[in-house]
Amino acid sequence: MSKSSLTLIAGSEKTKHALQEQLEQLLGDFVHIKSHAADEGIPQTLEDTIILYSSDTAYTRTKGMYSLNAKKIIVGKRTVHHEYIDKLLRIPEGSAVLLVNDDDDATNRLIESFYQLGIDHVQFIPFRKGNLFYEDVQIAVSPGETHLCPSYIKEVIDIGVRLFDMTTILEVVECCGLNKDISSKISERYISNIIELQRKLLDAERDAKQMSEHIQNVVGTVDDGILVVNQEGRITVFNPRLAALFHVVVQDVVNKDIEHVINCRDITDFILNGKDESKYFEIDGVGVVIFRLQMTKENTIVATFKSVHQAFEIEKTAQREMRNKGFHTKYGFNDIIGEHAVMKERKRIAKKLALSEHPILIQGETGTGKELFAHAIHQHSLRKNRPFLAVNCSALTESLLESELFGYEEGTFTGAQKGGKKGLFELADNGTIFLDEIGDISLTVQSHLLRVLQEGEIRRIGGGRIIPINVRVITATNKDLQGKIRDGSFRSDLFYRLNVLNLCIPPLIERRADIPLLIKHIITKSGKWVKVEQNVLEYFMQYEWPGNIRELKSTIDYMLTVCEGNVVTKRDLPSMLGQAGGSVASEYTECESMLEIRERAFILEIIMQCNEKGKAASRELISSQSKESDVVLSPQQIRRRLDILESEGFVVKGRGRAGTKITAAGMEYLYFLKSKRAVYS
Ligand SMILES: Nc1ncnc2c1ncn2[C@@H]1O[C@H](COP(=O)(O)OP(=O)(O)OP(=O)(O)O)[C@@H](O)[C@H]1O
């Protein structure tokens, strides 16, 4: 079959090329195509099977210029090149868009065809020659006539030459008398171009989806709660951390109105309309600071929820750094929780005592916070920038305590450090020394200490050199010192030296109203976002707390470790609560001494902390941490103790680098040891 023939007549050369290319691509295999542009001049005689005009304008502009002999004349209809539709759809909704073409009629027709194509999210304004300013217009669109655009317009989208639409192509196919197979092949070619665009759009959509999933995953790993709301107050981002805080499921809250999800007016008001950058809130007893950021360009608000615990952690790291450089206090009066009138009064008095230079004796039951007060007093004193050194007198043997306190000269005893060692009194010079459990020191150490206090100078063990010292002494005990004086185990002259100022800390049962506050404080510091069931609280309010706040703290720590989900229930109570001072000890092998209790508790505590962080608890790690505590243990000593703990079923030792793990029985035992330690006397 011989090829049909077609002549294309276009207005401009540029249009001619673009349309010739389109026709070649679609019909070139079956139709012979020639083309002319009015710009270049058209032959006097045009003779062909089909004469195809690029547009109405091309037809009316050229029709008298030549003699015409054709079987069929077609005036083509054109539409936006599919590749540009995507660009047009990306113009922000509601924008005013100037449509620039070289002919007013063509401009109007183009606008009409845009609307018909469904590109109606913007408002098209027709360009008129001679009118160079269009108010509020920042974007222009032009089918290849961009040189006509007013120069102030920032963004010009060139949609290129528009191509023949499907109906024009089908009309040509019909006139050429091509068989069905060929005509369907041609329409498939036309459609495949559109499918290609669709594919690109799908690719872009998939990329965007992947990117959004990636961002979701990143947001999911962040330790802070993240919330984003759009201008209508609907939630667009709500990360899992936040879902845990509000006890909701992420999928259920995205796209919901923020006020339906967070039903605390103060919080939603702050997020939506707050003037400050950040604000503190309590959400189900958890202290958080919300930081808000208004993203004006995107019309969204981003709120980050930071746990107060993190702030504590940062502070702790900073304090650790400080301590590495010198010896500093860890706590101030603000760390002592207690709103009960007696506590308030004790804090007021302690602040006054802090400012004097005299020794202070702090008395109170075990775990009432005596050490905490000692720290706070130093921090409030004029010596606050000088060292603060604490020593637990009951944890050391007599000779070790002496050498720790007063130091020794080189060669004093086997194993003594080369060059001798400074004692804590020397190290604390111009600062404060805190002697905890002073009631437990031997008569020998008592007389040594008395001499130091009377003379204001020390002599290292094994040395003759006198070293003047300027140290303020704070002591603490849970023992009845007067009773000890009566039975001759404590020197009265030392007592009067130490007890110049006296502070008595009340036990927890005398200030039960502080229990909820303390619970909240302990949970917040643990970093867990959980709630405590009302009946647990009621139980806590009735319990005697012989180990005071230390016992309360270790009970809550235990419950936080074993509880499931976000609520601490009565099920999580340690089975031994209330029996700490009672007969339960018979369940476990009796510890020989307070030191053994401390050692076992220390080792188990470190293992539990490591396990919680997913780290391996090696002997070396436990040993190195022990150096910073009041139980110093070598890796060999730890090995022996771990063997015993394993034989008792409290730990499981891993091979190689796996480290040791605490068992559930071990956790209960740890709790028991802590409470035992608390009531031990
Ligand atoms: N008022 C309080 N506010 C917050 N935490 C407290 C308070 N009192 C005690 N604690 C916490 O309880 C635990 C025991 O406190 P501390 O060691 O100061 O007690 P203590 O009276 O010195 O005990 P002991 O007589 O056994 O040496 C610590 O973890 C401490 O931080």
Write structural notes for this entry:
- The chain is 43% helix and 19% strand.
- The protein contains 25 helices and 28 strands.
- The strands form nine sheets. The protein has a five-stranded antiparallel beta sheet with strand order 12-11-15-14-13.
- A hairpin with a 4-residue loop joins strand 14 and strand 15.
- The model is unreliable at 578-586 (pLDDT under 50).
- The chain binds adenosine-5'-triphosphate.
- Adenosine-5'-triphosphate binds at residues 336-338, 364, 366-372, 436, 476, 478, 521, 549-550, 553.
Write the layout of secondary structure elements.
Blueprint: E1 4-10, H1 13-27, E2 31-37, E3 45-53, H2 56-62, E4 67-75, E5 78-79, H3 82-89, E6 96-99, H4 104-116, E7 123-126, E8 139-142, E9 155-158, E10 163-164, H5 166-175, H6 180-221, E11 225-229, E12 235-238, H7 240-246, H8 250-253, H9 258-261, H10 265-273, E13 278-283, E14 286-295, E15 300-307, H11 308-325, H12 341-355, E16 360-364, H13 370-380, E17 388-392, H14 398-406, E18 407-408, E19 421-422, H15 424-427, E20 432-436, H16 443-455, E21 457-459, E22 466-468, E23 472-477, H17 481-486, H18 492-498, E24 501-505, H19 515-526, E25 531-532, H20 534-542, H21 548-562, E26 567-568, H22 594-612, H23 619-626, H24 635-647, E27 651-653, E28 660-662, H25 664-679
Parallel strand pairs: 1-2, 1-3, 3-4, 6-7, 6-8, 8-9, 16-23, 16-24, 17-20, 20-23, 25-26
Antiparallel strand pairs: 5-10, 11-12, 11-15, 13-14, 14-15, 18-19, 21-22, 27-28
Helix pairs in contact: 5-6, 12-13, 19-21, 21-25, 22-25, 23-24
The site of adenosine-5'-triphosphate (ATP) has 18 residues, from α13 and α21.
